[in-house]
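Lab notebook, bench 4. Still working through the backlog of constructs that have no structural model yet. Next entry is a single chain of 165 residues. Request: give me the structure tokens for it.
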Amino acid sequence: MIDETLEKWDRLLIEVAELGNFVELSRVADEQSVWWLADEDEESLVIEWNEGIQRLMLSTEIGVVPERNMVDALKQALYYNLVWQQTGGARMALLPEDDSLRLMIDLPGEHLESIRVATVANNLLQAARDWRSGWDKAPDPNDTSSTADDSPGDEPMPPSDFIRV
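Model written out:
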């Protein structure tokens, strides 16, 4: 039964790779129900099937949070988790080994279509790119050359600025 389920996911993810213009798909050797998917920009996703709860988890690394704005970035990530309804259920986690953030979303496995998975996968990768871009544009809090009028304030990013996956 498990082999049939994995074959079903293999077929679906091949369609996802084609529909989403991904250039590489492989099953992770050590894990039977984990796949790796990459696009032409070498952005990648990990896709995991959980048989027990019948959910498909898609996740991507946003990156190591820059030390100069660690507190602000983590506040934004927690706020992002809070507004899960506006983000389509996407959420973030901090990986303890290197302080990198992962963006993830899980989808119900029942009646899941390849076009939906491809759309969510592409949106997830774009959201990760946008988070990294925001880090690059964020002012350095240790930079004393900026004035109080230049600082963005401590307000959380409004949900309208989030990308819904």
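Notes after review: Strands lie at 24-27, 34-38, 44-50, 55-64, 91-95, 100-108. Confidence is low (pLDDT under 50) at residues 148-153, 155-160. Flag for follow-up if needed.
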